[in-house]
């Protein structure tokens, strides 16, 4: 009597896992040069890097042009302004993770959109006439990201442009990035 129960469970498991065989796994690691501007008045331009990775699946039979997955990234940006007796050094770093969708196109372009969540770390160090002061704060961040990658070779793509609009603590940052993607099919 145990055999039908085991057979039923195996068939149920097979039916549940069958769609996974119809999906292709893809992903990549990327490194971008980034430039950001904060919404606060008088804020300097921040420059730095964004590194991260994405992992996606393609529903081959259902929607062959659509990939769904996730992205995780870290951004490090820095700004210096002022000279001589009065100088300021600002850091704005973030870690974000969340869902991503991308689309296959016939011309080797991969447009994508993401909504990522995480944290931002802002730090300001100022010095003037021999005195110095530092202030730092950590915030939650929500980012809306869109961009396009261009496949140059089977395992290499150029991230032509990425636009990241992040909000945190009643402020926002708009970041533009370009870089390389190491694709892992």
> Which stretches are poorly predicted, pLDDT < 50 over at least 5 residues?
15-22
In N-to-C order, the SSE pattern is: HEEEEEEEE
Shape: elongated
Q: Approximately how much helix is present in the residues? A: 10-25%
Fold-level CATH name: Porin
What is the CATH C level class, in words?
Answer: Mainly Beta
Number of domains: 1
Query: Approximately how much beta-strand content do the residues carry?
Result: over 45%
Outline the secondary-structure elements.
Elements (H helix, E strand, L loop, with lengths): L1 H20 L1 E16 L6 E15 L6 E16 L4 E18 L5 E20 L2 E23 L2 E13 L2 E14 L1
Antiparallel strand pairs: 1-2, 1-8, 2-3, 3-4, 4-5, 5-6, 6-7, 7-8
What does this protein look like?
The protein has 185 residues and is mostly beta strands. The chain has a single domain, classed as Porin. It has one helix spanning 2-21, and strands at 23-38, 45-59, 66-81, 86-103, 109-128, 131-153, 156-168, 171-184. An eight-stranded antiparallel beta barrel has the order 1-2-3-4-5-6-7-8. A hairpin with a 6-residue loop joins strand 1 (23-38) and strand 2 (45-59). 23% of the residues are buried. The model is unreliable at 15-22 (pLDDT under 50).
Entry keywords:
eight-stranded antiparallel β-barrel; 185 residues; mainly beta; Porin
């Amino acid at each position: 009597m145990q055999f039908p129960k085991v057979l039923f469970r195996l068939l149920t498991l097979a039916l549940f896992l069958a769609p996974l065989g119809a999906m292709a796994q893809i992903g990549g690691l990327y490194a971008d040069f980034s430039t950001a501007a904060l919404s606060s008045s008088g804020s300097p331009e921040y420059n730095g890097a964004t590194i991260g990775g994405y992992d996606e699946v393609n529903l081959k039979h259902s929607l062959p042009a659509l990939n769904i997955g996730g992205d995780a990234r870290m951004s490090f940006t820095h700004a210096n302004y002022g000279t001589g007796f009065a100088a300021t050094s600002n850091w704005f770093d973030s870690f974000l993770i969340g869902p991503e969708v991308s689309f296959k196109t016939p011309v080797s372009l991969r447009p994508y959109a993401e909504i990522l969540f995480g944290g931002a770390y802002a730090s300001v160090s100022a010095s003037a006439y021999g005195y110095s002061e530092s202030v730092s704060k950590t915030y939650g961040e929500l980012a809306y990201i869109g961009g396009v990658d261009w496949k140059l070779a089977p395992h290499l793509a150029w991230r032509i442009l990425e636009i990241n609009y992040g909000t945190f603590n009643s402020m926002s940052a708009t970041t533009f990035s370009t870089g390389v993607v190491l694709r892992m099919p």
